[in-house]
Amino acid sequence: MSLSDACRKQLEEAETRVEMLIRKEGKIAAEPFRPEKPRKHDLRESLAQQQRLVDSELDRLVPPETTPPETIHRAMRYSLFAGGKRIRPYFV
């Protein structure tokens, strides 16, 4: 089974569950669920946005270089903020 087939199957199952919940509550949907048409995706911009989010969160969580023990915190920040570690959070 291809990935797109598996995704399609999961979506159909989710739609069925939503319809069952709606019927169970006695509500009738005005229209059946229709997913939005995919928008053109700008990978470069999306990765840059994700990098900003990850960097911001890392900066918030990791102690500043000036916090004792300074050598350890400086090394931690150097390692974390070096390039090449931003693609995984994008896909996870």
How does this model look, in words?
- By secondary structure, the protein is mostly helical.
- The protein folds into two domains: about 1-35; about 40-90, no CATH class.
- Helix content is about 65%, strand content about 0%.
- It has four helices and no strands.
- It has helices spanning about 5-25, 45-60, 70-80, 85-90.
- The two termini are about 20 Å apart.
- The mean pLDDT is about 75.
Radius of gyration, in angstroms, nearest whole number: 22 Å
Total strand segments: 0
Which stretches of 5+ consecutive residues score pLDDT under 50? none
Percent range for helical residues?
Answer: 55-70%
Q: How does the overall form come out from the CA principal axes?
A: elongated
Largest beta-sheet details: none
Q: Please give the alpha-carbon distance between the first and last residues.
A: 22 Å
Number of structural domains = 2
Q: What's the pLDDT, averaged over the residues?
A: 77
What's the SSE pattern? Answer: HHHH
Percent of sequence in beta strands: under 5%
Please write out the topology.
Elements lengths: L2 H22 L18 H19 L8 H12 L5 H5 L1
Summarize the structure.
By secondary structure, the protein is mainly α.
Highlighted features:
single chain; 92 residues; 2 domains; 4 helices; 63% helix
